[in-house]
């Protein structure tokens, strides 16, 4: 095979061809890179758009105010109600849900969450459902009926009516209301993968769920750190027959805090799948008086709270509590109700105003250990028995009062008789001395 060596001119020509080829490759690579970056950008934009749309959609769906989160671009954090005063008060209501048996729109859980962003503190104040209050336009009723009565006047009117009543009871300006049904709690807890609560002793409810065979009929959990799924968390939050409505309120606060801790620990807000699931859940089972932009701003404030101090308080009828229990005759028979001691809300308002001041709170309600509420009736039979016992005690006290009055009169008469006798005796003695 013949071999012909290349001359210098040939070498230069080949070099030029190689340089041209190299430039073309670089241009081709740059084109491919730009195309890839464009595709990635479009995908990210699409995902971001879906997330934004989903967020905006469910915010608008659960809000009674309408509007969108675009409004937040024109609003500052100071536009949120309560921010300028340094304290944001949110009323949280829990109920069975629309068209559910057993009073679907009656508020079984009534809790005020008060947030002090600058102090990194949150207070939870639970109000018992049996508190007898004045409901504007509806006379005096148990406070748990407020939401249902309001809804008769129109959708979301129940939250607005409850807002007024709670303000009258607590003295607090209620800035926002959130209403959630049982399904919301059940599904959110399941989406979080369960929540963990700590029990000092075993807990059991053997009466409340038997008739409807809810929660397995007899619901019980052992002592220690217990992980609850959605159904068990709901049962644990509803049970009250073997304990009391006040103890139930404490457990509801514990479950709420456990949900908060779990959401933070697993970074749920950075998981698109979980955010999507949450959006579907709350969209169907939660309502609020907050506009979408207000939800976004409040969420931003909550994110800034760094392991905040949590203050728990339940209004109760214990010895040092601010409520007392009594019976009320109604057309349907006797009813168990709670009223404020002193028959006014002055002490309750004082407590709520000073809830972040431990010293002031202890002056209003001295610490009491162990907690011993007055037992509440569980059913109609218990109500009748309590009413009968109340009448017996009332008659006994009345009889004792009459007996004491009779004895007092008898003693008064005897004293008067002795006094007259002594007067006559002294008169006779003086007469003898005179004679």
Describe this structure as you would to a colleague.
Helices cover 49% and strands 18% of the residues. The protein has a domain at 193-265: LCP protein (Aminopeptidase, 3-Layer(aba) Sandwich). The chain contains 11 helices and 14 strands. It has helices at residues 8-62, 146-151, 157-170, 182-191, 230-238, 245-265, 272-285, 292-304, 346-353, 358-364, 380-434; strands at 88-95, 107-116, 121-126, 132-135, 139-142, 176-181, 195-199, 203-205, 219-221, 224-228, 286-288, 309-314, 323-330, 333-340. β4 (132-135) and β5 form a beta hairpin. It has 435 residues and is α+β, with helices and mostly antiparallel strands.
Tags for this entry?
Aminopeptidase; two-stranded antiparallel ribbon; alpha+beta; 14 strands; six-stranded mixed sheet; single chain; 435 residues; 11 helices; 18% strand; 49% helix; disordered C terminus
